[in-house]
Amino acid sequence: MIYLLAIVITVIVSIVAIIMLPTRAKASTALLTVVVSVVLSSILSVTALSGNTIEFILSGSFVTGPVPFRIDALSAWFILTINFTFLTGIIYGQSYMKAYYDNPKGLSMHWIAYILCHIALIGVCSVQNSLVFLIFWEIMALSAFILVIFEGHKQQTLKAGINYLIQSHIGIMLLTLAMIWVMIKTHSFDFNAIGIFFKTLSSIGKLVLFFCMFIGFAIKAGFFPFHTWLPHAHPAAPSHISGIMSGVIIKIGIYGILRMLTYVQGGYSLIGYIILTLSIITGIYGVMLAIIQHNLKRLLAYHSIENIGIIGIGIGLGCIGLGNGNQSFIFLGFAGALLHTLNHSLFKSLLFYGAGNIYQSTHTVNIEQLGGIGKKMPHTSFLFLVAALAICGLPPFNGFVSEFIIYNGLFHGLGDADLPYLMLVISSVFGLALIGGLAIMCFTKAYGAIFLGTPRHRIQGEITESLISKLLPMYAIVLLIVSIGIFPKFFINLLTPSVGVFTAIYSGTNEAMSIPDFTTLKAVGYASLALIGISALLFFIRNSIVQFKPQDIETTWGCGYIGPATKMQYTASSFIRNFRKLAEPVLAVHKYKKDVEGIFPGKAWHETHPLDKAEVNLIDKPIKWLKLFLNQFTFLQNGNPQIYVLYGFAFIILIIGVPVIYDLFMGLVKFLYNL
Amino acid sequence: MISFVLIFLVSFIFSGILVRTKSIASGRKGPGIMQPMKDIIRLFRKGSVYSETTSLIFQIAPSIYFASILVAILVVPVGNFKGIISFEYDFIFFAYVLALGKFFTIISALDTGSSFEGMGASREALYSMLAEPAFFVLMGSLGLLTGHTSFHEIFTTFHFGSYVSYALGIMATFVLVMICMIENSRMPVDDPKTHLELTMVHEVMILDNSGFDLGLIMHAVNLKFAMYGALIANLYIGVLPFYIAIPLFFAIQVIFAIMAGSIESFSARFRMNHNAQFIFTLSSVSLLIFFGVLLVLNKLN
Question: Cβ contacts (< 8 Å) between B95 and chain A: which residues?
């Protein structure tokens, strides 16, 4: 309670302070506020994670009813993830935003929105009253919108922001609908009422209510086909905002899904099957589109969709476990999903911060224009490489651990499974393996084209390494990435109470159930250590031998051609050309080119524009039809004031007239009936 | 430990036998069995030339590539001898460690800024991506069949009970042989002896490597062959006592080398754009194995 008060007071004071203070002090004030709320909420979360659910009830008001704050292990896990990313985000961000000191008003808005967004996210994770939950959800959506449109004078940015705003409100609408339904039936906004209401529903009713909520949350999380706002919003936002959006804001959708799953009583199998199928599609679709992107931040945004797919596979697996009462499935599925949530928030924020470094020193995030900047930005290059390896799920980093756990779950206990489940498992395994392979292709392309080779484009000004204040939070993330990779057992132990929330659903008690023996993970840790050790040893041996041998520096081998030009180097598009050809039926890539023609050819060019087929078919086309239909009524809006007064008049007559006519009609019917 | 030593021993002669087979098949006298190894040792002693475009990545990548294969071999058992590292689901670790090595070879090729090496890198990335699901489906099916989840347990409990499981064994061998050929960039996906950079896959990626690094990469190919050979041998060795298992292991490796040599001698390389289709075929064969397993376990009714 005292914590809550402290957070609220800090936030209010700092919001006023940020407006008052000079430009330079704004960011540090915001940093201080975030640190305070991080510390306070982390204390609560750590207590909750050690098994003691924190609960206090505010009396609320006449409208909301009592407002319970409950932080259980599940909320705690998400709050800690959010806190870490918001902390690194603001440390990175205050250095990043120095470039925008000429816009003090924008900065005030930005930092206030940052603080509010953080508080709203913590609120969403801890409040268990539907109405207050929705209010926090809305604060989060709006503040995220303000954060995204920081560079709102650019039309592209504003468009992306509004796209996000509309789509996230469609999500909110669905959530509101579901929660009003529950409220009407149970007369309570408490989340526990949702559980009670679910019990009374038929299996079809359960499915409808759950998927009403699921779609609402899925829009936030970016499940296919509700992902279309994501690749627009992420590139438009400043990099630290992209980092926190992709790292944690979309994860709040995952939190919502998980939270609602704890209230669905029964019918888990079908839900599991649906989520699993959807997740496989999401994963593969996300990574396939990621590969063909030229804009680095957009590429990363599609990768978020892919990773949401991987998390979803874990959730689906856990649900199937809940459905057929298999404890190992429950544990492996949800543990994999939760760990991957943390992991993805780490490496994805790192990648976005890396993209921010690149953007601020080269002023572009177009992969095709970059090249060879690894030599000038060695730290960024190293950090990006670690994040890229981690996101591809390669050992010895953290991505491998969570994917390993999910694979574990998929391969577990196949012997007793029935045919439909086996078919689904084998397609999940197929999909997950394919996602892994495609991710490697995508990140070798991104890393290779940006940091390696020679520059493909002349960049204005000197390319320099970023300041230490930007690199420091990035190294902090790397530290965590590597330690999860090497000590997976420790982190799984941390995670156990959170997964216990789900195992408790099955057993009906609150005590943690028998957890699968995870000595395997220890072995994974050792194997990763062995990998690091052997690599280092081998490189050391190599260096000690090579240094005594003659070494020459020459130009790159060009088949005997000794005047290599930068333009001859392989580009990102050419790197993925084979893949693009193969995947053409699924993708939509618009290609324009002018060939070399005639005896005196002019300038030849070639450009490709990757489109999102789902967006074209689900968003763009329906909107186009809607516009066509609505265009029929443009004659109504003719700019003539007299006509508008007439509309008002007609409306009033209609309002008054309809009941009167209805009454007359009913009277007539009654009269006829009496006859 | 023994498995590691055995695989390491085989790696010294594998390429030799393969090259010998090819020379006999084409009617040449050909080099001795130890010649490829001698070449590698000579490379280890040589100095190196680096491209001015390259960075540290280019120098560190061959070591990591080699290390990744060594770690992968640590996991592989031979018959009853466990790998040094053995845990449940170690085959997932095996596949991902190999992928790590591949990641580094690909970026090291891109590091040269060459007009050719990116081409090889692009193909390597695509082919290995397509081959990955086949391996996982194969191992998943074998795991389902035997009810175990680590290489050692799967292979020691893989029995040839019925006719169907014979078929499964043969199909699994086929898939592993083909994955091995793809991973090592051999026929029919790639021709290591081609002379045109435009038609190479693996060879074109390492155009700029020289000296010690090239030696590492060359020997990594031998190790990879021996490693996959060991996986194939494991399908047949099972729990035989060591005095039969070890000779059988060598025999199977030699047969595998001769087989690989014959494939290279008597088949032509596919057109580049047919490779993708071919590798997809592999996935469907491993799905066939999966259905075979379902058949054996009576799950299909």
Answer: 433
Q: How many CB atoms lie within 10 A of CB B94?
A: 24
Q: How far apart are CA A133 and CA A172, in angstroms?
A: 11
Compute chain B's Rg from CA coordinates.
19
More confident residue, A438 or B80: A438
Q: Is A640 helix (H, G, I), strand (E, B) or coil?
A: coil
Cβ contact, residue pair B113, A452, below 8 Å: yes
A70 — phi, psi (to 5°)? -125, 125
Q: Are strands A588-594 and A65-71 parallel, antiparallel or unpaired?
A: unpaired
Burial state string for A221-241 with b = 16 or more CB within 10 A and e = fewer than 16: bbbbbbbbbbbbbbbbbbbbb
CA distance B217 to B219: 5
Predicted pLDDT of residue A604:
85
The answer to whether B121 contacts A575, with C-beta atoms less than 8 Å apart, is yes
In tens, the pLDDT along A1-45 reads 788 888 888 888 888 888 888 888 888 888 888 898 899 888 888
Q: Is the ipTM value over 0.95, yes or no?
A: no
Residue-wise pLDDT tens digits, A364-399: 888 888 888 888 889 999 999 999 999 999 988 999
- Whether B68 sits inside 8 A of A531 (CB atoms) is yes
Predicted pLDDT of residue A48 = 85
The residue in chain B having the minimum alpha-carbon distance to the alpha carbon of residue A547 is B47
Q: Tell me the percentage of chain A whose pLDDT exceeds 70.
A: 97
Strand-pair partners of A129 = A190
Q: H or E element: which one contains B41?
A: helix B35-45
Q: Which residues contact A479 (CB under 8 A, 6 or more apart)?
A: none
How is residue A223 written in tokens? 């499940």
Confidence of residue A507 (pLDDT cuts 50, 70, 90): low
Element (H, E) at B40: helix B35-45
CB contact under 8 A, B299 and A568: no
**Chain B residues touching residue A552 (CB < 8 angstroms):** 47-50
CA B40, B41, B46, B51: dihedral to nearest 10 degrees?
30
User: Are residues A438 and B129, on separate chains, in Cβ contact within 8 Å?
Assistant: yes
Identify whether the C-beta of residue A220 lies closer than 8 Å to the C-beta of residue A168. yes
For residue A563, the distance in angstroms to the closest alpha carbon of chain B comes to 12
Residue with tokens 């490796």: B253
Size of interface A-B (CB pairs under 8 A): 264
pLDDT of residue A508: 57
Nearest-CB residue to B55 (from A374, A392, A419): A374
In angstroms, the CA A36 to CA A16 distance is 16
C-alpha–C-alpha distance, residues B301 and B298, integer Å: 7
- Beta bridge partners, A56, equal A69
Interface contact B89-A411, CB threshold 8 A:
yes
Q: Residue A547: its chain B contacts at CB < 8 A?
A: none
Q: Do B113 and A453 touch (CB under 8 A)?
A: yes
Q: Which pLDDT band holds residue A516 (cuts at 50, 70, 90)?
A: low
Mean pLDDT within A496-517: 67
Q: What is the pLDDT of residues B209-256, one digit of tens each?
A: 888 999 999 999 899 999 999 998 888 887 778 888 888 889 999 999
**Residue A591 DSSP one-character state:** E
Q: Hey, what are B118's tokens?
A: 């990116």
Nearest C-alpha in B relative to A411: B140
Chain A residue numbers touching B212 (CB-CB < 8 A): 542, 545-546, 549
Q: Which residues of B touch A546 (CB under 8 A)?
A: 48, 211-212
Which of B48, B93, B199 is the best mutation test for A, with the most CBs of A within 10 A? B93
* Ordered DSSP codes for A398-412: HHHHHHHHHHHHHHT
Q: What pLDDT does A510 receive?
A: 47
Give the Cα separation of A673 and A319 in Å (integer): 57
